[in-house]
Amino acid sequence: MARKKGKQDAAKAPPHPQKNASPLLVAVALAVAGVAAFVARARSPSADDALAALSAALASDSGGWAADVAPRQLLTGLAGRSFCDFDVVNASALDAAALERYRRTRTPVLLRGAASRWKAGRRWRKETLREAYAGRATQYGAGSDIVFAGGGVTNHATLRSLLDRVDAATAALANDSTSVLADDVFAFDVSALDAIPELRGDFSTPKLLQKAFPKKLLGGAHWQLLSLGPSRAGLPMHAHGETWLGVVHGAKRWFCYELGDGPPRDVSAALHPLASARAWYGAVYAQARHLPKTCLQRAGDVFYLPPGWKHATLNVGETVAVGGQLGYGAAERFEFSKRALAADPRDVEALHGAGIAAAHLAFEGRPELFRESVAYLSRAAEERPLQPEVNIILGEVLAGAGDTAAAARAVERCRDAYRAAAARPPLAGAPSPTALAAVHLKFGRFFLGAAMWDRALAPLGDAIALRPDYAEAFKDRAHAHEKLGDRRASTADLERAFAIAPDDAAIPPLLCASSNGRSPACASLPDGGRSLAP
Q1: Which has the closest alpha carbon to 489: 467, 523, 461?
Q2: 56-327, superfamily in CATH?
Q3: What does the domain layout of the chain look like in residue ranges?
Q4: Fewer CB in a 10 Å sphere around the end CB: N or C, the chain?
Q5: Is 527 helix (H, G, I), strand (E, B) or coil?
Q6: What does 79-140 look like in DSSP terms, one character per residue?
Q7: Does the pLDDT value for residue 121 go beyond 50?
């Protein structure tokens, strides 16, 4: 279970004298506070000293990747000699049988030094990557965008432009440690290693994990991923399949709740569902009633996370990491989610997981689970009307079963909830325009996927209004216009997308076809776009 802070933690804060107290009472109170503070320091000097030493160590740049401007702010709740609530095992002292016990008991573990011999440690300097792979494709987004898009994101970029955004976020934090610019610049990219295959030779799956994460997996999904972002960027609370991640440069904090556990409901309810990892960290650690297990992973370490654990992550300093993730099997996810719901019937993540899993099983030959899927997802939507993924997946399940009218209503209810929320005082951790625009893009993409071309226009227009430089929204709206027969509007949107993102290789063929070969974008195509012109 997660750790609970007791009375001893609460006693660390000295009492504040009342405003109208007499000078004598004030003096007595301050004296008592001073004695209490001295006793607390005398009782655990090593803990404070250890955190101070850790903060100093994390203040140094690594491989050209910048340290955090005030790392001590990101270390709340860390304790012990290893700064990890899970077992920390020297990778060279662990055998495969011992690791299998962690897998069998579904227990996270930090493998110290398992990535320390990777070539990436010396080759993945920031400027080296920028110069060597500047024009290669990658993608990035807000943490909520990544989590609520099933691991995909809605911003395409070159590696050079992504690193430029990381630099800008770091500069903003240097001027103001409360800057939120880093919230929108996070890469958790399962396609980057295909776009930059040269990087694959610089790391390898740790030997201890190669049986669990084979290069070729029969009967299941297996992704290799690149994680890259500025300090204080990360992913908010979510769950997925079995995962390992090795940090090359920087450091990463993990916040984990085991099956059936989670943060206090009132804390979650007060936070916007799209709140960043940084906002989540601040809200959860601002109260001391029920905290997650936590672990600090540093360069050279590999963190192993079993399937089903809810977790959030937060970069401490600019951080680049690589890892592997297995698909979350529907049967396993259904079992885990139902066990979590037995402990807490209102667990939104478990309702979400049970709904997705039941839908997969229904479409794979168990149609009796369709109603259960709709019921689970509907309950999750009632608990979190502003959680886009739950509502959109509910729409997709209904559409897949042939009830397109109910599917459209499910997504429109979420759109209505966002409109109503705009007229109320904002929840804590309110999303940036960039993160909010990504939600409206997802609404639009739902309607595009359901061939409701006219209904896609409004949410895509909302995305563009929030973020006028949103090339993906212009591309999607162009597609809707084309399907509706408005070639002129389609061409105009594609021209705007090309002006914003000239490095996006997907745009020139679309624009050349839409403009009958008259667009300057055709010049970038091998045959000048002649094969695409009608």
Answers
A1: 461
A2: Cupin (2.60.120.650)
A3: 56-327, 331-475
A4: C
A5: coil
A6: -TTTSBSSEEEEGGG--HHHHHHHHHTT--EEEETTTTT-THHHH--HHHHHHHSTT-EEEE
A7: yes
- With CA atoms as reference, report the closest residue to 187 among 209, 206, 161: 161
Buried b (16+ CB within 10 A) or exposed e, 141-159: bbbbbbbbbeeebbbbbbb
**Cβ-Cβ contacts under 8 Å for 160 (sequence gap 6 or more):** 130, 134, 135
Lowest mean pLDDT among 74-78, 235-239, 285-289, 319-323: 285-289
3-state DSSP assignment of residue 373: helix
> pTM of this prediction?
0.86
The one-letter amino acid code at 91 reads A
For residues 246 and 116, the answer to whether their CB atoms sit within 8 Å is no
3-class state of residue 145 by DSSP: helix
Question: Hey, what amino acid is at 156?
Answer: H
CB atoms near residue 9 (< 10 Å): 12
The pLDDT tens digits of the residues spanning 53-91 come to: 999 999 999 999 999 999 999 999 998 889 999 999 999
Q: Which two tokens stand for residue 363?
A: 């479409």
Give the tens place of pLDDT for each residue, 457-515: 999 999 999 999 999 999 999 999 999 999 999 999 999 999 999 888 889 999 988 88
Measured at the CA of 525, the angle between CA 524 and CA 530, to 5 degrees, comes to 125
17: tokens are 């004298």
Whether the pLDDT of residue 97 is over 50: the answer is: yes
Query: Rounded CA gap, 355 and 378, in Å?
Result: 9
Three-state helix/strand/coil letters over 421-463 = HCCCCCCECCCCHHHHHHHHHHHHHHHHHCCCHHHHHHHHHHH
Look over the chain and give the mean of its residue pLDDT values, rounded to a whole number: 87
Distance CA 487, CA 194 (A): 34
Residue type for position 240 = H
Report pLDDT digits (tens) over 25-64: 333 333 334 434 333 433 455 778 889 999 999 999 999 9
Q: Are 415 and 443 in contact (CB under 8 A)?
A: yes
Tell the CATH topology of 331-475: 1.25.40
